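Running log. JK asked me to keep both predictions on one page so they can be read side by side. First protein, sequence followed by its tokens:
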Amino acid sequence: MQIDPRRSAAFLAAVDTGSLELAAAQLSLSPSAVSQRISALEQDFGTPLLVRSRPCRPTGPGTRLLQYLRRSSLLEAEFLAEMGMDEGPVRVAIAVNNDTLATWLLPLLAPILASEELLVEFVLDNQGHTFALMAQGRVVACVAGEATPMHGCSVSPLGLMRYRMVASKDFAAQWFADGFNRETARRAPVVVFDRKDSLQSAFLLRHFGLPEGAYPFHYVPASDPFVDAIRIGMGYGMLPMEQCGAMLEAGSLVDLAPDLYVDVPLYWHAWRVQPPRLERMGAALVKAARAVLQQPG
């Protein structure tokens, strides 16, 4: 059986845009025509492929189809380029965590993308969740905290991001004049990135026995504002050395627990079978990341 390209395009557009209406606008079709093409694709496979919710999301079989379609479209683009029928740069979707994107990734990746004539779409999530985005077929590669590769994928260690518990000088003087301990930590407000961010809660539980909810906290779900919130004294929290190192040296931030830190290992995940351009991009990124990130041992 051959997959009908018009039906698969409708399915991809619905998943990418999250609705039949937006998919229809992207494909210059009516929403009913998009729905009919997806229904025909489901009949071809004999199983539901798309949950028509808001946003639309693939079913289990739909997720496997999505993985196949993402990879096959990249392989097709690579083949056309080799045959002199290049239609322009290829776009790749990569899942990364916010701190990676805000610190070391862009300076390393930008020249590689230019050299390989690739465009990128970053999909952001916590490093513990980017792996799931690849499993769902939403991206073709990811930077993740997971060391074990998914079936059909390869994994390469990149290095460590070291996190320190820091606060502004004035904040530390106000809240931790008697030291950074269980009692003072119960009262001082913490800055947390989002509900998936467990760095602060794990640190306070491990070292002070404070469960989540035993202390006040802010949610600041954007990398630069998160840093700013700590810098201006809204609260204290954990920052990677790539973001706080210069401020610690300048004295505008203080390390509340100099003997304690958290190392977060990062790994590059990609499909074993992928276009040569993506293989070269991944290999170059792994090499460059290992040169700038701290290595174990």
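And the second, directly underneath as requested:
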Amino acid sequence: MVETLTGARIAVSIRVGGEPCHIHADPSQFDTALVNMAVNARDAMDGEGRLDISVEAVGVVPAMRSHPALIGDYVRIALSDTGSGIPAEQIDRIFEPFFTTKGVGQGTGLGLSQVFGFAKQSGGEVKVESEVGRGTTFALYLPRAEKGEGGVEDAVPADAVVDGRGTCVLVVEDNRDVGTFSTQTLQELGYGTHWVADADEALATLAAKPDTYDVVFSDVVMPGMNGVELGREVRRLYPGLPVVLTSGYSHFLAQESDHGFELLQKPYSVEALSRILRRASSKPRRRRKAAE
């Protein structure tokens, strides 16, 4: 997943310590935090460099941001890049919502804010160390759990992740990073995928090959026609073709609650994505070309 996000010109290495490193954390939020840190590292390296990822059990969280050190059982997940680094005067602001050092249109300033919020909500911390011209290390410290102690192995049924082979998904997502993550995840589950950036392109793709796709998986908030409007148009033109919508804007979904489509709240886990697509695509439908 990380190598797909970073691209071929960034070398990725992963080192895992010898002790078990189970954590107490929401899996979907954890996935999102890793994606946000990896994307931040990629952008800092301008698409070329080295990203080292390490995972290890530790017994202390170092003092940071005026907080004393914390003694206990934690897992440290660190991402170190060889990027441009962060000036010292900006270090204390990088976790603020909407603060970004990127150019206009290149970032929302919400990625690292999500990482910070996730760490705090999980009872952990996030530490950043940086040197201009040499690179940056972001380290997540999360409470460590014993194997089987409320872990994913106990919480997720054995059939939670389903082989998607034989099912083709039309992915509609205007954000490049999210689109890359979604299609890569689906392909790893065995699904066939085709990714388009907006509703107009989705409708053109369906018109060209109306019998190819088994389900449409679309973001809600997009430029132009939004996901709900797209879903209604798909329903009109291709009766029975399932539509699954996804969004991180819960208030938008609440306002548009009468559409009748399957909904997947961002951030989502691989298991949740697998389950909702299985449910949607397993419903029998009658294939037909678009209405005249």
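Observation for JK regarding the second prediction: The radius of gyration is 21 Å.
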